[in-house]
Amino acid sequence: QFLLRESDVGQNRAEASRQALAELNPCVVVEAHTGELSEAFLASFQVVVLTESPLEEQLCVGDFCHARGICFIVADAKGLVGQLFCDFGEHFVIDDPAEGDPVCATVQHISQGNPGVVTCLETEGSHGHLFSDGDLVTFSGVEGMTELNGQEPVSVRVLDAFRLEIGDTSSFSPYRSGGLVSQVRRPLECSHKPLCQALEEPKIEANSEELPRSRSLHAAFQALHAFHREQGRLPRPRAPADTERVLELARSLGTQQDPLDEDIVRAFASVSAGDLCPVAAVVGALAAQEVLK
Question: Any idea where the Ubiquitin-activating enzyme E1 four-helix bundle domain is (predicted)?
Fold first, then answer.
């Protein structure tokens, strides 16, 4: 823990960290709350992040936040493994749903017809299709067919790498020269599941080779919560009896779509009591980015 000193041992971590944390950015007010996470306290926030939290608390706080439109994040690190869950509510708006800058191309020609066809100039470094079917575009600087300038965004159909259909242009003035066609990105609304539903139907983002491992780790985290409820502690480091009990609990959950990777679960259980700064830093950075969203 980067913000603590040896003299802070025995103190509440939040109170001991607050001063050093506040000095990182004088424009941000940092307060330490050492009471219970009451509904009245939680209701004052836009985003709530839980870490090192029992599953029962995660479910309770997650349901409360979801019902009130408060963004909810669970971030945790156990040994060499990290976990991150996000619930941004049922009506979360993504202002820019695609990565990178919107596409902008120079117009070479626009035909009169139904549909009209826009031909774009090839640009240096361009490869593949500039636009995709259904993209919304606007026009600017067009000479001749000036009706297109400032028009509301229109949907396109891609003919090839540099030609687009844009709808009826038969009544427009003949195209003379110039112009830019620019992609318009509309905000996208998406719905997030609360934690209680996500645990029943876990959606794990991973490639096909990593998927079985990710699902085994997902089961291992649930088994670790069950072990903590049962024993009141985390598994002792490299204690075979504790490791095998976590494995038994993982098997009993029965949520696996793939065979359980028992070696992964054993390795996870044997180091789960440890805290490693590099793992905490990575998970913490990812969680912070989700908070900014």
Answer: 187-253
